[in-house]
Structure formats: structure tokens, C-alpha cells
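Lesson 9: reading folded outputs for more than one chain in a single document. The general rule is that every protein is listed as its sequence immediately followed by its C-alpha cells, and records are never interleaved. Here is the first one.
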Amino acid sequence: MTTAPIVSKVWSFCTTLRDDGVGYGDYLEQLTYLIFLKMADEYAKPPYSRDVGIPEGYDWTSLTSRRGAELEAHYVTLLRKLGEQTGMLGQIFTKAQNKVTDPAKLFRLIDMVDSTTWVRLGADVKGDIYEGLLERNAEDTKSGAGQYFTPRPLIRAMVECIRPEPGKTIADPACGTGGFFLAAHDFLTDTDNQALDKDQKAFLKHSTFFGNEIVAGTRRLCLMNMFLHGIGEMTGDTLVSSADALISPPSETFDYVLANPPFGKKSSMSFTNAEGEQETDELTYNRQDFWATTSNKQLNFVQHIRTMLKTTGRAAVVVPDNVLFEGGAGETIRRKLLQTTDLHTILRLPTGIFYAQGVKANVMFFDNRPASPDPQTSKVWYYDYRTNVHHTLKQKPLTYAHLQDFINCYNPGNRHDRESTWSEDTPDGRWRAFDREDLLARDKASLDLFWLRDASMTNLEDLPEPEILAAEIMENLRSAIGNFELVEGRLVD
């Protein structure tokens, strides 16, 4: 069954609501509430006859049986009541508000959701529909949702490299809408990879995934996304915590961490001082298990992710360029990573692939190791997918096929058996290893490495298409502004 018509049908109604000031994100939240209630109603009826925990009088039929102002008033009361419940139900409806103030349009929205029997749709179909809606929302730059949406082809490639195994735990300390969880779930349920037995299926549904997401609206989208993909129970405990992951050491450790922590120059909070003026105070996490104290939240996330891993745990983390070259705490953390973990792979990503613009990012792959006086990293393999690579979100979006060569070079089946594609005879090879000693000898132990020649610098015929070139210029300008802000922040400090 194709999901495109349903996605188009559901999304088209948003344009009607835009005239009433309902943004894409608000619309998606209302859909989340209504689809959840509709599915709860379907589960409560035969042949399922499940107790779904919806309080009497605040269920789906209480909405479909009302019209006009009475419907709007009841909907507001219903959202508040459900937000008081426990488990996933309460988390879905935490701080829920009605953004569709026109009773006629609210009724039309409810009627549209009511016209589909959601439970009968397979988990893959329901999940694809919701993922399609999330991607549409991310594409709207005004909504700001793009910052929570990691390109799905990149996520899939990271999962293919890590190759998670059944019966093991997977965590994401800044899980956004749950993209890494869903890609890992798809990998584990793919019969081409393995056949799950009954116990493994139960573990996958209830005990595999653990996340943190501090933004309430994003957390509810994540929970709904996971639920529609068959992860968790409607009446079960929430799998995603609202706590700030960086506040304290993790209460448990995990087999895998897959993450794209939020980018931003530093952690801070705004407040009003005694004179009524706005001030910003840096948030510094003083944790004994961290190697360095810093207000740079990307560096804090790298440290935190290392603490989340079991001694045999493995991580794949998206990080901005500054994590590879920044001095001070950054240098300390890089040296510690090379000493205490096996930092074996870095994928250099091009611009133009993230909805949050101006981002220059990389993927770091590292495996945790038991405490030892001996260095755990011997060499770091780099794949340069940035130099002479041109992507835009519209004209030339990143696809899984674009990353297939990296996956082949990574060699997930046996990453210890790798062959470089670069040599003095093949200077255009994108896959190359550097010894740990050579990296430590670099200024500030910088891992910010390139070796390929930029073709556009020597041959004007190699320039990309004008629209791609213009997009790249804008990306570089935004990145430069971000770097200036970083420098300015350090000077103020």
C-alpha cells in the first residue's frame, strides 16, 4: 500500500488551517492527538477489546458526537484531562493545547482522521505516513523543525555501519523525532539481516530503545512516531525521558548510542536581572565523570555519550566541525577519546544536507573499551564526502545511494579488514587512514583533516550548477557567521 495519497490528503488540510494562523508544527501536533485517540478507540473495540487507559467521557466518540462551540470547549477539556494521565498517554498529551479555534475546521479535521482505520494499517505503513508528515514539517524552514530532523539517508547509513544486534539496547540522548530508533528498528526487523524469535521481538518492542528529549512538542512527536512503528505500548511506560541528559551521569549504560545532538555555540539560559534587563548565563555541567568542563554543549554531549556506553558499547555521533578542531576543552576531549576509546572512523559530510542551514558536520564512530593504560585507538579512518561534493535539499538531495561507497569502505562485516582508496598514485581516493601518533602531533590534536584537491579551485569547468553554487555560498556564509560567533563568545569569556 502506497502512503503518498494519505500523506497528501492529511497534509493538504494544513493549507486551509494556515489562514487561521495554524503553523505546520501546530497542525502536526493536533494530528498526533487525534490519531492517537482514534487508534485507542479502535483498540478498545473487538476484536482487540483492550483497556487503553482513556478516561470515560474523554475518548474518541466524545469528540465525534459533538459539534460547534461545544466540540471546541470539550476538546480543550479533553486535552487537559489526558495530560494528567501517566505513562505514554500522559506524555503524548503533556501541555497539549488546541490550536484549531474554528469549530467547523476542527470538526472537519476530526472527520478526516475518523475516515481512516489506522489499526488495520501495518506498522510500516502508519510509520511511513507519520515520517512523511514529519519530513514535510522539517522542510518548512519557518517552523524551525528542521533542527530536530536528521536526514534519513544519513541515519540509515550510520545504522548499516553499526549493525545493531537483537537483544541489545540502543540510546539517543537527544532523540528529536526518533529517527535513529526507527532506522535501527527497521534494520532489526529486516528478515534479510536476521529472523527474530518471540523473545527478541518482545525485547525490541519494550526494552531496546531509550531516549531523552527536553522539548515537549518534539518529545510527543517522537513518542507517536515510535508507537506508530510498533515500539512501546499505548498504556506502557514512556521510553523517552523529558530530563536534560547532560545534567547527571547516566543511571544505566547501553550497547549502542546513535545520536545527532543539537548544534549551537554554547549552553545558556536567559533571565531578567534586578534592573529589568535581559541577561544570559552560561550553563556549565560540573560532572566528575567528564574529562573537561566546558559550556560548549557539543563537546559535553560527546563526553556524555562516552559515559553512556557499556565497556563493549559502540557509538555513532553527528558532530559539527568545531568538535574536531576547537582548542582548550576540545583538545583535552579528543586526546582522551584517542586514549580510552577506539575512535576508528570519521565521515566528513558535505553542506546542503541538513534542514538547519550553514551546518558543517561529521560522523564520529568510536567503540568504548575497558580501562587500560594502553592507547585504544591505533588509527583513524577518514572518508571525505565533502570535497567536490555538492548537495542541496531541493535540487540534489542526499540519498542512501550517495553513501553506499562509504558503507562499502567502512566494511561493517569486518571493519578491521579495510583497504585505503587513497595513495600517492590515486590522490583522489576519499578513504584514508591516519595513525594516532600523527594525529596527536597536530596542533591541538586537531582531527580536522582534508587531503583532496578542490577541483573548482583549478578548473572553472568543474563548478557546480548555478543554483547549487548559490546554495553552497549561502551555506558557507552561514557557517562563517557561526564561527565568528564562536570566536566572539570565547573573547567575551
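And here is the second record, again sequence then C-alpha cells.
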Amino acid sequence: MSNLLPFGIGAWTFIVLYVSSLLLVGWAGRAARREDTLQDFYLGGRGFGFAVLFLTLYATQYSGNTVFGVAGATYRLGFSWLIAVHYMLAIIVFYLAFAPKLYGVAQKRGYVTPVDYLKDRYDSKHVSLLGSIVMIVALNNYLLAQLMAMGRALQGLAGPYGDVAYRYGVVGLALIMLIYGTLGGMRAIAWTDVMQGSVLMVGFLVLLVLLLNEFGPLAAATEQIAGSAEAFKVTRPEPRMLREWVSYIIVIGMGGALYPHAIQRIYAAKSRRALNLSLATMTFLPYLTALFAVIAGIYALAYVPGLEGAETDQALASLLRIIQEGSLIGYAVVVVIFSALLAALMSTADSAMLSISSMFTKDIYGVHINPEADESRLTKIGKRCSWIVVGVLVVLAIILENQASLIDLIDRKFDLLVQLVPAFMLGIHVSFLRSGPVLAGLLTGLTIALGLAFGPFDFVVAGKVWGVHPGVYGLLANTAVAVVGSLLQKPETRHGV
């Protein structure tokens, strides 16, 4: 293993102890379970106060995509990718637009999965089933991105042994999170998120200090890029980028607020006050995370030239390798940073895994396959589902090693998730939405978004139509069908409005 990663015995001891602590938390979470129910396993008994809720939301939102995907996108596009700060902030804004009201309804109605709200609000198996499928497909895409990000982290650090290290990273991450996630459920994952969120915050701050110490001020890096063939990446973005910025704010801001695993954390809050305080505190974090990832991408563009395509997602890891080789202090600090990167990846991947498991188990298996199953049986099925899903995604991550960038993957995920905006964000505030038009709108939006994204159209460039995500066009049509269709019918009051 020392040939794959330039770490010595001390570093590996630290990393092993860190990973072992996560597994111990998994055992502790199992021991703390009060009952063998879906609510206890998937929501931790709805007992998360401010500290736990804030750190688990933070650790979940800022993932391997933030660390590696944003740095990689900045490497490819330059300062124009400052949009990452804006769309991360937009997620919090859209949380605040619907989460407090959804929390109140969830407490009264006993929701466990995001789809429970759709069932209760629209009283339609078709809406619920399609919502489940959309969320599960989107989260599988997300979990795949996290596994690939772990591989890319090791790939960048390993240098000439990168391909082998990539496979170690994918398989290792999968095994660790499967063990502690299936042992303790949401409680174990939230408790590990407290550890990982804390490490992640410190890691980002240390990363900025390391970059400044090793490479000098950001202005010097910018000047170096300005004198190269990549100079256009540090100049003012073209006017057409404005459309792309607005598109990202809509599709990621709204879609990110509808992450199924984030919605389940809303359900798990101990009180409305804990939820509101957690979300308010998170408004400051894009400047500590996404902004620092952009800065890292600029440094990599200046001092690690030559990365192309999917290789650009190795930009941050390549910087860390340079820092590590420069001094003993750099070596020690990179070990801590590497642990923070592990934290970012696992804290998001485990949440996505648990959410996929909960929706398949309760909303598909428990409704359409075996309605007679009791909660103990459903919990066991959920654990098996986690192992099967992650196993398939591990194989896919290895096959797709050099065939997709992390940003390309998350774009498709948000094109899907944003189609649920009318059903959730609008439906929680107004009473006139009806199940039939909502279903028709959702089908229309998905057809347009997926048709534009994957169809043979010359006007689709880099996955966008005139700089706008296909999901935005789908959302506009989706909303129009849902609203107009509902207004043409007699209004009826639904639960939760």
C-alpha cells in the first residue's frame, strides 16, 4: 500500500484509527437503538438537537463533489466557477422556503421518507411511485459520484500507481460506510457526521493555509495563469455565462434542497427551533467550503498544468501531493487533510445510501411488493438493499473511471430532482394542487429534461441548451401543467396545507 500512497506508518496509523472510530460509532448507534422500527433506524428517533442536526446537514451537503468536483470544474473553467458559492447558498435559501412548514407536518403525520409527504398530500400511488423512482435514480447517481470522488482522491495522490489506488479508494469507502451505516442506521450516520463535519471544517481552513504557504498569494497564481494559454480562465466571464449562472442557481438551489437524505434530516430534528437555527447557521458555510474549493482549483490550474477531461477532478489531490513532498510539516498536515477529504466523501455517501434504502424498502417493497411485511422485516430488507445497491455502484465506478467528470454526473442528478419542486415546494404552501395535474406535470418535466439531456440535438452543447440546464426547461413546463391543470379542477384541501 505504501507504493500506492506516499504515507508512512505513522500516517496510516492515524488514518486507521480515524476509520476505526467510525466503525465504533456504528456499533454505538446499534446499541443505542430503542426499538426495531423504521422511524428509529432511518430517523434516529427524531431526536437531533442543534449541534448534531447542524453538523449532519453540513457534512451531508458538502460532499466529495464540493471538494473535488468544484476544484476540478474551476480547473477547467477558471473564476467563472465562483457560481459554486452562489448555488450552495441558494440551497439554504430554498430550504428556508419550505423546510420549517414541512417539519411541522412531518411531526404531526409521522413521516419517515420524503415520499411519505407525497402519499399524504396527493393520495396517489402513481405520484408516490414516480417520486420514489426519481429520488432513487438521482441518489444512485449521487452515490456513484461520491465513490468515484474517493477513487480520484487516491488517484491524484498516488501518481504513477493511480489506477490501482482508484480501485482501492472506491472499494474501501464502500465497505467502511456499509458497515457502520447498516449497523446503526441514521443515528450512527449522524454521530459520525458530527466527527466528520468537524474534521471537514478544520480541514478546509488548514487547506487554505497550506496553499498560501506552499504557493504564495492567490494573485501570483492568477498572474501565472494570465501569462499562459489558459489566460481566458482568469478574465471576466462572457455575458452568456450569466444564463448559466442563473441556471445553476435554479437547478442546484432547488434540486439540492430536495435531496431525500436532507429531507429526512428535517424530519429527524428535535424541534423547529433546532431546525431553523441549523439552517440559519449554514448560510455562512459556502464561503468556508465552496469558495476554498474554487481557490484550490485556481492554484492547481497555475501549478499543476496538463490535466484534461476527467483527470481535472484530481486537481486538489495533485496539489496535496506537491505539498506533502515539500516538507515534514506538509506531510503531516496532508494526512489531516486527507482525513477531512474522507470525511467529506463518507458523510455524504452514507446518507445517500441510507436514503435509497429507506425509500426502496418502505415506499416500493413495503407498498408494491410485500405490503404485509412488518417493520422488523422492512428494516432487514433495507440493510440488504444497501449492500446490493452499493455493490452495483462500485462496479460502475470502476468501469467509468476515466469516462465522466463529477460535475457532469451531478448535472444530470439535479435535472431529475428539480422536477419535484412543484409537488414539494409549491404543494406545501397551496391547497389547489391536484394529484392528476401534478403527475402529468412531473411526467412532462422528466420527458423534456431527459429528452434534451440525452437526445441527438445539435443545439445541446456541454449538456445545456443555450447555456441553460435541460432541467430548467422541464421545470417550467412541469409547473405550468401542474398549476393550470389544478386550477381547471375544483380545489380540494389536502393534509399539510
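What the second record shows: Residues 493-497 have pLDDT under 50 and may be disordered.
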